[in-house]
């Protein structure tokens, strides 16, 4: 569905991504793991058009999209849920959700309503809080809102950057359960996460980034048993 081919990204003289090639299969959950500063968020931002690559290429369904503007990529239903949630705190939950579908055209108003109903079914608390300002939600509820807003665009590829950051363990478990449900319904997911163990439990395939390079990759269930990965990322889980 999406692949990067020898992708390079620079910040001045600093190479944030040096030669990154990944392949995301349609219908899969693909994880990007690594320490802070490894280039994980840079990779996601480059895929979603927020950063222009200095070299290499990105392909979505065999069409080159490297350097294409983010608003054009959202029309292809490549949807990025950023780190830090980035909800509109003064707008209501419902208004935040409606903003999520502005970039794409639903076939009918019924399709729009059906999508909203689906989102409310996944996150019942958002329906209960629909008239409340987003800024009054708890951290976990705001993360649910950020994901739900992305789903309003009916994504083909949902890109998630640290969805569990700063959340309590029980909320994290709920978030990952929901992501697995989404994937089972047909949504392809690319996820960056510090919580390596939880991520590998739901992922199909994973890549490990270190200072801009992929140093390891493989099926998630295999990487969970990798001694080096356990020592580096899983031992403290």
Number of helices: 10
Are there runs of 5+ residues with pLDDT below 50, and where? none
Tally of strands: 10
Radius of gyration: 17 Å
* N-to-C span: 31 Å
**Broad shape:** globular
Write a brief caption for the model.
With 237 residues, the protein is α/β, with parallel strands linked by helices. It is built from 10 helices and 10 strands. β1 and β2 (14-24) form a beta hairpin.
Give a description of the structure.
Strand 7, helix 7 and strand 8 (188-192) form a beta-alpha-beta unit. The strands form two sheets. The protein has a six-stranded mixed beta sheet with strand order 6-7-8-3-9-10, sandwiched between helices. Strands 2-1-4-5 form a four-stranded antiparallel beta sheet, with helices on one face. The two termini are 31 Å apart. It has ten helices and ten strands. The chain is 37% helix and 26% strand. The protein has a domain at 1-77 and 192-237: P-loop containing nucleotide triphosphate hydrolases (Rossmann fold), CATH 3.40.50. The chain has 237 residues and is α/β, with parallel strands linked by helices.
List the helices and strands and how they pair.
Elements lengths: L1 E10 L2 E11 L4 E5 L6 H8 L7 E6 L2 E2 L5 H6 L2 E4 L11 H7 L9 H14 L1 H5 L10 H13 L5 E5 L7 H16 L3 E5 L3 H7 L2 E6 L2 E7 H4 L3 H8 L3
Parallel strand pairs: 3-8, 3-9, 6-7, 7-8
Antiparallel strand pairs: 1-2, 1-4, 4-5, 9-10
């Amino acid at each position: 569905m999406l692949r990067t081919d020898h992708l390079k990204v620079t910040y001045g003289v600093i190479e944030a991504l040096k030669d990154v090639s990944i392949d995301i299969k349609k219908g899969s959950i693909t994880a990007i793991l690594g320490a802070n500063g490894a280039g994980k968020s840079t990779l996601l931002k480059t895929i979603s058009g927020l950063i222009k690559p200095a070299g290499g290429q990105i392909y979505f369904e065999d069409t080159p999209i490297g350097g294409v503007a983010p608003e054009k990529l959202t029309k292809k239903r490549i949807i990025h849920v950023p780190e830090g949630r980035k909800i509109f705190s003064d707008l209501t939950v419902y208004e935040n959700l409606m903003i999520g579908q502005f970039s794409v055209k639903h076939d009918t108003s019924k399709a729009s309503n059906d999508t909203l109903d689906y989102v409310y079914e996944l996150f019942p608390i958002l329906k209960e809080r629909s008239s409340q300002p987003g800024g009054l939600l708890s951290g976990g509820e705001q993360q649910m809102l950020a994901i739900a807003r992305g789903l309003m665009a009916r994504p083909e590829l949902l890109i998630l950057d640290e969805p569990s950051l700063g959340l309590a363990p029980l909320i994290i478990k709920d978030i990952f359960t929901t992501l697995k449900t989404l994937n089972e319904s047909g949504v392809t997911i690319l996820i960056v996460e510090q919580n390596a163990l939880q991520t590998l439990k739901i992922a199909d395939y994973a890549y490990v980034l270190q200072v801009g390079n992929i140093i390891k990759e493989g099926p998630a269930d295999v990487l969970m048993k990798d001694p080096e990965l356990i020592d580096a990322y899983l031992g403290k889980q």
